[in-house]
Fold this protein.
Amino acid sequence: MSDHRAAIRHHTLRTGIVEFDNGTGSTISVPCTIRDVSGTGTRLELNSSLRVAEQFSLIFSNGLRKDCRVAWSKGRLIGSAFADGYASADEQVVMMTADEQALHRLGIGARVRTARETRGYTETQFAELIGVTPAFVSLAEKGEADIPLYQLMHIADLLLVSLDRLVAGPTPSAEDVDAA
């Protein structure tokens, strides 16, 4: 599986604009729905049957502009890869709404809590092992605090789970998340 296909995708339904040169020097702008985003690309649904050029710019509703290339297309659906490889962490934050970010944090927190409980650690014991306060552990597990990447890596090692599983693994059931 390529890095682009393995990237964590965040489901969204947001409008954007696809811009490209039509080959005569004119710029064409086509509205689209951004179905999901990741650090490496997006999945778009065009609001037109117009064919898009292999290289285009995607403009998010907040003004962020990313140069893209078509990775695949099927009818009006287009899988795109960012021309510069990966979107920066700041760009990825801009690509997700506040609600999407909160939901993502909640999922990470629930997976951390499940892994911690599976290993038999209390919040206090776990906080001591990773060098934070028990209050931070509680907030993070409820999705109310961001866990820095370096700490997520340490947590994954400590709890004997993969970083991918903590960040993008299956989310515990709704009852588990509600109990967080």
Observations:
- Helices lie at 3-6, 89-95, 98-118, 123-130, 134-141, 149-159, 163-168, 174-179.
- The first helix runs from residue 3 to 6.
- Residues 3-94 form a domain with the Thrombin, subunit H fold (CATH 2.40.10.220).
- The chain has two domains: 3-94, 97-179.
